[in-house]
Write a structure and sequence with these properties.
alpha/beta, Rossmann fold, 5 domains, 13% strand, elongated
């Protein structure tokens, strides 16, 4: 028996069962049968040590039989409870009655249960074993000379067993130049035989797995001789661990040692836990020995020494900190050529820091068909929904939006329930998310610092679907944090638009509600119309409120008193808007559903973002400060002038008063010198642009479209040295100032109509 490609893997035996000690003693993967005087301290010892080093539970009589035990009965039990038999036929094997009795017993076991026998011919011709010739002939002459009638019957059994063994395809040691090569080949065959026990447990029905497997194989490049580190990243519950297990099961047999370290994040919370992970890694490679290391630095050195000559497959699952990689797989040089280190994480940046081979693999949501199939496998134990459950199944799949964990959890929870129970569960989920799913998703949130958490909650409650530049402008420190959230897969960026999985958004909003689920006045952020109306009507808003986004599209008229906003002293973000298009007449009457008292006031010192479509008063409240205001949007408003007197708005970057038909005058621009965008289109009553616009040296966009009464531009326009876009459509301007030739950055000039 020969093998062209020897492939060796590491094998970790299953943990002992709860059965008695005597039962466990004889549960062996391999039984070694040999003539001790011939090979015990040579080939058999080398083979035994190799088997043990690969974690293969092996019986060898001098190692396994207790001193003073009943040798015959224990040997018979060991044979009966062994799965693979390695028989080492040496020159004097046949002289041992014990060896021959073992051989007969082995073939008896073969008759009752399928086993594997591997004959090894150690300095003896296989034909001598098969025909009982040569030294085997002399051994049997001696046996027959001493035999009585009963013994002669046993001799016939011995001869038959030897003939059967000699006819099996085996290994002739003389055909191998080196003994170690034969030992490796034998171990390879044994491990392949035990292949089913080596596989990591994964579901039999995995949707979309072939696609992931092919993509990852192209990154792993198994044929390449270098050491490669491959990253797999994605949202919690997206299937990273399952995918990495499938990859492991497909390629582990190509490596000398294969190790899957699961839950690295959870299992490295303190120093002893990190040290234990190092020990587990080492003990998975160096079988049969319990490696003792005293500290992490010593562990790093031992890992380097023991693994740098081995071809290793190492999977580090659910890593969330760089230090976890530094003490387990710090550098490629720690591992032998053709090793592969696969890292799963929720943090893409961590993979970049560790300089994994690019690009790392992002696991994305399942598409609709795959989602429905996976859900049905758990909800109905079939690939398609039952006839009466098609619509409600589609509703659940729409709600989950391709997250495998949620599909499995919800599918299992709905199994065998009535349609009415399904509909009730779905309604409940829209108000109270499933906590099993939420807890998995929340792990990513818990790893953020306080500033990152605040901005994540702002995005989850208010800014999903918004342009990244707009969000980073409105939120302090947001520019760097948006990248962190993207790296940690809490958001995605597509064409500069911030996307967030629906269940992640729900997780964020559930965090806001958590401490006071029935008291929205104590939440930090408010986004639900009913909650906001209740707070304004009952005046229950508190200093905890930092943001309010009020979608008026489905609202009735909302009225409130002056006191409604009085306690909201930390208000940063305030938006009144319509989520769908509505018809608006010239005076913006359609927007007067939010009835504002004439003496209306609200705290504005911390206000950074004020967006109030259809604002109904002639000016902003008398107490309006706006000192920290970044963006002011009052489109379709009844505003006539912004405020009385002078205001300092040095932080203001965006001013949008578009379609405010009653606007007649603008404040002096010298008080808002950092303004970048000014939009006053369709302000039909505005008849001039104040010359102070020349102070806006950072202005990049000026939109005067539809301002029918504006007949000219001030000469100071040439000071707008940053201006890139100028819209004059629909104005009555007939001639542009000569000084405009100084606007060297202007790339868009629109003068239609």
């Amino acid at each position: 028996m020969t093998s062209t490609n020897t492939q060796i893997i590491s094998y970790s035996p299953p943990p002992p069962s709860s059965s008695s000690k005597s039962t466990r003693l004889f549960a062996y993967e391999v039984f070694l049968s040999f003539r001790g005087e011939d090979t015990r301290y040579g080939f058999t010892d080398h083979l035994y040590e190799a088997l043990i080093s690969y974690g293969i539970h092996t019986f060898r009589d001098d190692e396994e039989i207790k001193r003073g035990g009943e040798v015959a009965s224990e040997l018979l039990n060991a044979i009966e409870e062994s799965k693979i038999f390695v028989i080492i036929f040496s020159e004097n094997y046949a002289t041992s009655r014990w060896c021959l009795d073992e051989l007969v017993k082995i073939f008896e076991c073969m008759a009752t249960k399928q086993r594997l026998i591997l004959p090894i011919f150690c300095h003896v011709d296989p034909s001598d074993v098969r025909k009982q010739s040569g030294s085997y002939d002399q051994a049997f002459l001696d046996h027959e000379r001493e035999a009585d009638v009963e013994k002669k019957e046993k001799i016939q059994k011995w001869r038959l067993a030897l003939t059967k063994a000699g006819n099996l395809a085996g290994y002739d040691l003389q055909k191998y130049r080196y003994e170690t090569r034969l030992i490796k080949e034998i171990i390879d065959v044994i491990l392949r035989e035990m292949n089913s026990k080596l596989l990591l447990p994964v579901s039999k029905n995995m949707v979309g797995m072939n696609f992931h497997l092919e993509k990852l194989k192209s990154l792993i490049k198994i044929e390449s001789n270098d050491v490669r580190m491959i990253g797999i990243y994605g949202l919690g519950g997206i299937g990273k661990t399952t995918i990495s297990k499938v990859v492991y099961n497909n390629i582990f047999h190509l490596f000398e040692s294969s190790i899957f370290l699961s839950n690295v994040r959870e299992r490295s919370q303190d120093y002893p836990s990190r040290l234990q992970l190092q020990k587990e890694l080492l003990n998975s490679v160096i079988k049969g020995k319990n490696m003792e290391i005293n500290n992490i630095h010593e562990g790093i050195n031992v890992i380097k020494q023991r693994l740098r000559s081995k071809r290793v497959l190492l999977i580090l699952d659910d890593v969330d900190k760089l230090e976890q990689l530094e003490f387990l797989a710090g550098e490629r040089g720690w591992f032998g050529l053709r090793s592969r280190i696969i890292i799963t994480t929720r943090d893409q940046h961590l993979l970049k820091e560790h300089e994994v081979d690019v690009p790392p693999y992002e696991v994305k949501e399942l598409d609709y068909e795959e989602s429905l199939q996976l859900f049905c496998q758990h909800a109905f134990k079939q690939n398609t929904p039952k006839k009466d459950y098609v619509d409600v199944s589609n509703d659940v799949v729409d709600y989950v939006n391709g997250l495998p964990l949620a599909l499995e959890v919800l599918g299992s929870s709905l199994f065998s329930k009535s349609k009415a129970e399904w509909e009730s569960t779905l309604q409940k989920l829209k108000r109270k998310p499933n906590m099993t799913v939420q807890n998995v998703l929340r792990t990513s949130f818990d790893g953020l610092d306080e500033i990152e958490k605040d901005i994540f909650l702002d995005v989850a409650c208010f800014f999903k679907g918004c342009n990244e530049k707009d969000v980073t402008r409105r939120l302090d420190h947001a520019k760097g944090v948006i990248r962190v959230l993207s790296d940690k897969c809490l958001i995605t960026l597509s064409h500069n638009i911030i996307r967030m999985h629906d269940l992640v958004q729900e997780m964020g909003r559930e965090i806001v509600r958590h401490d006071h689920p029935k008291e929205p006045g104590k939440w930090s952020r408010l986004w639900d119309l009913d909650d906001i109306c209740l707070i304004l009507r009952k005046k229950t808003g508190t200093e905890a409120i930092e943001g309010i986004f009020l979608d008026m599209f489905r609202s009735r008229e909302i009225s409130f008193t002056v006191e409604a906003f009085k306690r909201m002293e930390r208000l940063r973000l305030f938006k009144v808007y319509w989520s769908c298009d509505v018809k608006v007449n010239d005076m913006g009457k359609e927007y007067q559903k939010l009835l504002i008292p004439k003496d209306f006031e609200f705290p504005s010192y911390d206000l950074r973002y004020l967006h109030w479509e259809g604002y109904s008063l002639k000016s902003l409240p008398s107490n309006f400060e706006g000192e920290n205001l970044i963006e002011l949007n009052l489109e379709h408003s009844n505003i006539k002038h912004l405020w009385q007197g002078e205001k300092c708005l040095q932080k203001l970057k965006v001013l949008n008063l578009s379609s405010s038909q009653q606007l007649t005058d603008m404040p002096r621009f010298s008080n808002m010198s950092n303004l970048e965008k000014l939009n006053i289109q369709f302000c039909g009553s505005l008849d001039n642009v104040d010359s102070s616009i020349g102070f806006l040296t950072k202005l990049t966009l000026l939109n005067l479209s539809g301002c029918r009464k504006i007949r000219s531009l001030p000469n100071t326009i040439h000071r707008l040295v940053s201006l890139e876009s100028l819209y004059l459509d629909g104005t009555t301007i007939q001639e542009l100032p000569f000084s405009m030739h100084h606007l060297t950055l202007l790339v868009l000039l629109s003068t239609r109509n």
